[in-house]
Every structure is written in C-alpha cells, then in structure tokens.
Amino acid sequence: MKKLVISVILVNLLAACASQKAPEAAPAPAPTPVVEAAPASAPAPVAAVAVDALNDPTSILAKRSVYYGFDVDTVADADKGMLQAHAKYLSEHSNRKVELVGSADERGSTEYNLALGQRRADGVKKLLELGGASASQLRSVSVGEEKPKAVGHDEAAWSQNRRTDLNYAQ
Amino acid sequence: MLRVLKNVAVLSLLLTALSARAELTIEIVGAGEHQIPVAIVPLGGDEILSAAINAVVVGDLQRSGLFRMVDTVGKTPHEPGEVSFSDWQALGADALAIGSVGHADGKITVKFRLYDVLKKTPLAGEVVSAKESQLRAIGHRISDLIYEKLTGDQGVFSTRIVYVNRNGERFKLIIADSDGYNEQTVLDQNEPIMSPSWSADGKQIAYVSFETGHAAVFVQSVFSNQRKLIADFRGSNSAPAWSPDGKQLAIVLTRDGSSQIYLIRPDGSDIRRITFSGAIDTEPNFSPDGQYLLFTSDRGGSAQIYRLPLAGGLEQRQTFGEGSNYSPRYNPDGKSFVFTHRANGQFYISTQDFQTGQMQILSDGGWEKKPSYAPNGKLILFASESHGRGILASVSSDGRVKQRMYTQSGDAREPVWGPHL
User: N or C, where is chain A less crowded by C-beta within 10 Å?
Assistant: First the structure.
C-alpha cells in the first residue's frame, strides 16, 4: 500500500516537471482528481490511487497534437494509436470534453487554409467518435493559418503549424 | 491679426495630421507604355495648403503610371487669363492644370481648371470644397478629374481600401484611402480577423472574426460601425462575398460537413446551400452581373478556380496546368478574373481571360496573395511581403507599373479595394 502512495506522488511530480518543460507543446489541463482535492501541504490520501490518466505525463494521453504533411488532412497511421487512447479515455470519462483545433501552414490562401484546418479537426473528431467518444464531448474548429505556433517561411515552421490540437476543457 | 493667428493654428493642426502619417512610404517601379505629359502648377493662394494638395495630386498621378510630370520651370498661372499655351507646348506638356485654394469658415475650397495644351481648350473646371480634415480628399478628387479627362477611364483615387493588420496576436481591421493614407481602425481585438468584403455601395463590410471562439461572419456599417453576427454555426463560417445588388452574400459554412458555399441574406436569414461537392469549396466571388460565382475548390485534387452559374448548370473548372490557384475575383468588366497562382513554391498575382483561357502572370513572385481590382479595372491591389513584413502592393492590370505601400507596424493582410462611393 505504501508503495502505491509513493508512486502517486511521483506521478504528480512528473506531471509538474512535464508541464514546466514544454508548456507550449501540450497545454496540460488542470489536474482534476477523481477524489476531492486535498490541501497541497497534506499528504495524498490513500484513496488517490485512482489518478486521472490524463495527468500522467508518461501516458500516451500526454500527446495532444496530430501533425500532417502539406495539404494533407488524413491522420498518419503512427498517430492512430494515440487517438485511439484518447477515444477510449473519453468513452470512460463521459464528463470530459475536448476541443479539436485544426491549423494549417501559411501556404495557400487564408480561406483555403481555414477550410483545410477544419477538415483536419473534423477528421480527428471522426476517428475519436469511431473509437468510442461521444459527439457531445467533441467540438472541432479551425484557426487556419491565423495563429501560427512557429513563424518563418520554411519547412521547420510549416511542419509545426500543420496540426490538430486536442484541447481538453478544464 | 486674430484671424491670421487662427488660420495659423488650423494649419499647424493640418500639418500635424499629415506628419503623423509620415511612416507610410510608397515605392513605384515601372511606367506605362504611353505616358501623358502633364504640367501641374501648384495652386495659388495659401502656400501650405497648396503644397499639401499638390503632393497628393502628383503622388496619385505618378502611382497610376500613366502620366509624366512636366517641370513647370517656375511658371505660375492661376487664372485662365494668365495661361500662355505656346509656353506649355514648348515645354512638351499635353495638358495643364491650374487653380487656387482658399480657406474660410473651417472649409477648404479649390478652384481648379484643366486644359488641353495642344488644342488650347478647357477640358474641365470645377470648384471642390471640403472640411479641413479632408484635405487629402480634395487632392484625390482633383486627381480623379485629371485622370478621367485624360484617359477616358473613371479615376479611383477617391476610393477606399480595407485590410487586416496583424501584429503578434493583435488584429485590426483598417479602412484607408486608396493610397494607404488616412487609416481608420474599425475593429481592434486579440482574435483573428479575416476576409473583409465590401458591399457594392461601399456602405457595409462583411468579414470573419474569431471572437466567438471560432470563425464567424459579421456585417458592419462603415459609417456607424454598428455590427451584426450573421453566421455562427458549428465549425467554420467564413469567406463572405456580397452580391452586386447587396441583397445577399455568398458564405462558406461547415455546418453540414466540409466547407461548402451557401447564400444568406445580410441579416442572417434565408440560408441556402449551393455547392454539394464534399470537397473544399471556398472564396466565392460574384460576377458583376450577379449571374455567376467564381470560387476555389480542391475537388479535382488540388486547389483550382471554378465557375458556378447561379441559375443552375454545370460548375466549370477554369484553371489548369501546373500549380494550384486561389482567391479568384472578377474584373469589373466581367471578361477576366484575377487570382493567386502558386507554382514552384512561390505565389504570383495572375489574371485569366474567360474567352481565351489565357493566363498572364503580373507580379514577380514571392508571398503575393489576395488580389482585388480597383473599380475601374486598371489596378490590382494585393498582399505582398518585404523584409519579412506583410505589406500592401499594387500592379497595373497590364503588369507594367508596380507599387508597394509600407503601412504601420505589423503585417498588412487581406486587402480589398472598395467600390466608387
């Protein structure tokens, strides 16, 4: 039993580290423990073993972005396992909601890129639904090329901007 | 004495207003094939006003690429009786502009005359009057008169443009004079703004704003700035385009699946879907007669331009060949269209004739996007880039004269030339 408590604390520590290291790559949602929140100073209660897998930085659920090739909107096979895991998580946590935000690199027109970003987000939404998530948990939108994560006229920037982010509601 | 002081105060205000815009610079490259030599004599009367108006007129005419300024060699006729045509013939001028400027009761009044130097006949005479704050408008009006009388085409110097300024995460929707001066911010927010579109009467603009958490379409009055959210369905609502009669807009919605084109009234009612491709259909633009829409679609595998007859019938692909094509807009004469052509990693401004199907690239290539015609069809405004900054640029419709306008800080995006008012 003692061992379990330690591992829970470890997981929380790791989560803190991860969110400090890469706040941009995966905007970590506020931890939402299943049990009532204990004051920070108090030791974690034994019942906290039911940790939310969403807060586990070692979980595949810590991956929240799908990347694409130029003018491509289908999810690469390599990312399907990750989306499958999110779908399973959503099906098991029906109170959870996630916003899917599609974006595109700056090549093309702003309107075409808005449409492309929407198609990317809609594609991810469809996969999540197929995996068991309910449509009511999902909202897909696009920012097109309007909110670039990386700036520059090169593939290094463009590849960062061709993306669908899974943003869990807090 | 008091009166003089008052005038000095007003003038210094005017000068402050002018110098506040000094950050805007304009570069012109190239010249028209046949430039008309014209002599513009600085207006008589108030020297400061005269110099300011003269700068606007000369700037306008030079940017058109159609005129060559003849040195007035210190000659200063202001009244018809003071004009010696033989002098101006000797200087090589085909046309001569003279006049005077007055300033009273908060108004500036210009008496202006234009002559055909070879025929020794008057071409135009007009009294132009406006509020002090509209000094540049007086200059543009005079430029329009000269342009119309000497080229036979309607001038566009008095028209306005709209564009988006992006500075980091801050977005502004800006309306300015056609030369980029006189900027007015009509929307200022920390969410993206896209795709502004003028109504045919110039009284309203439609645009896309992300302030509701996703792309939604708004219509805003240019005069009152009153605005209305007209399409806010799930997914994206975008690409508004006004019909020529102003009674409806074509917009793009994803509420039923992929991006498809719909018609909607300006009050948000009466929505009707008109494309059913299941691909991306976007960037609709009405033909001047309201019978057709040009739009961008990737239904054939890459983004290309298509044309849809609104009365029903086949949607026809217009662009072929290498590369992809975006953002079509009709020439006001309805015979051709301008669009963004992408090939070999570069973006170009191109036109294509409906009858011949011939494509002509007008710009040098780079990050050149979102072209739109001036209402007389002679100039094309587009978004370009210089030293890593988004700027406004224009090219004459024959590709001969190019200009770049460096506006305020940040990136200028999505410019659209407005109609005659």
Answer: N
For B23-62, b where at least 16 C-beta lie within 10 A, e where not — what string?
ebebeeeeebeebbebbbbbbbbbebbbebbbebbbbbbb
Pairing of strands B107-116, B121-131: antiparallel
Fold of A63-170: 60s Ribosomal Protein L30; Chain: A; (3.30.1330)
Whether chain A has a CB inside 8 Å of the CB on B277: the answer is: no
Q: What backbone torsions phi and psi does residue B326 show, to the nearest 5 degrees?
A: -140, 170
Q: For residue B145, give Cα distances in angstroms to B99, B282, B403.
A: 13, 38, 22
- With pLDDT > 70 as the criterion, what percentage of chain B qualifies? 92
A4 pLDDT band (50/70/90 cuts)?
very low
- The rounded radius of gyration (Å) of the Cα atoms in chain A is 18
Partner-chain residue, chosen from B192, B213, B326, that has the shortest CB–CB distance to A108: B326
Q: State how far the Cα of B155 lies from the Cα of A12, in Å rounded to an integer.
A: 69
Average pLDDT over residues B259-270: 97
DSSP character at residue B335: S
Of B192, B254, B296, the CB nearest to A109: B296
- Taking only residues 2 to 61 of chain A, the set having a beta carbon closer than 8 angstroms to any beta carbon of chain B reads none
- Break chain A into its structural domains and give their ranges: 1-59, 63-170
Residue type, B322: E
Q: In order of start, what are the domains of chain B with their CATH numbers?
A: 34-151 (3.40.50.10070), 160-417 (2.120.10.30)
Render pLDDT for A21-78 as a digit per residue (tens, 0 to 9): 334 444 444 444 444 444 445 555 555 556 788 888 899 999 999 999 999 999 999 9
